[in-house]
Write a structure and sequence with these properties.
The protein contains one helix and six strands; from the N terminus they run H-E-E-E-E-E-E. The chain is mainly beta and 115 residues long.
Length: 115
């Protein structure tokens, strides 16, 4: 990943520790239909958090409003409610490394990042 010193990329240090094929986890809020209602009868409140696991399929830099942000496309592994596989776009600072990936196409260091 080529970093520009004038405009640093948010999450660049965290992204340097990740590779394509790494097993990662992140935390999502779980919406439950029987959860207590919010103030004034609004939407139900999130009652708990759930740990999700997935494999990184792509690392890239996305242009946001005022700065560049390091992102990861992750293929979720433990989503029982959905039968199809949908890649999730996550900010790299929200994912935590569980296990390093192995060899892909005979290469050990899979640092392919597109901008």
């Amino acid at each position: 990943m080529a970093l520009n010193k004038e405009k640093p990329v948010f999450g660049a240090r965290h992204a340097k520790k990740l590779n394509i094929g790494d097993l990662v986890y992140w935390v999502e809020w779980v919406w439950e239909p029987d959860a207590p209602k919010g103030p004034n009868g609004g939407d139900p409140l999130c009652s708990r958090q759930s740990k999700r696991f997935g494999v990184i399929s792509e690392l890239y830099v996305e242009d946001r409003d005022i700065r560049k942000v390091a992102m990861a496309k992750v293929v979720p592994m433990n989503s029982k409610d959905d039968k199809r596989v949908h890649e999730k776009n996550l900010i790299v600072t929200s994912v935590k490394l569980v296990s390093k990936g192995g060899y892909i196409s005979g290469k050990k260091n899979n640092r392919i990042i597109s901008e």
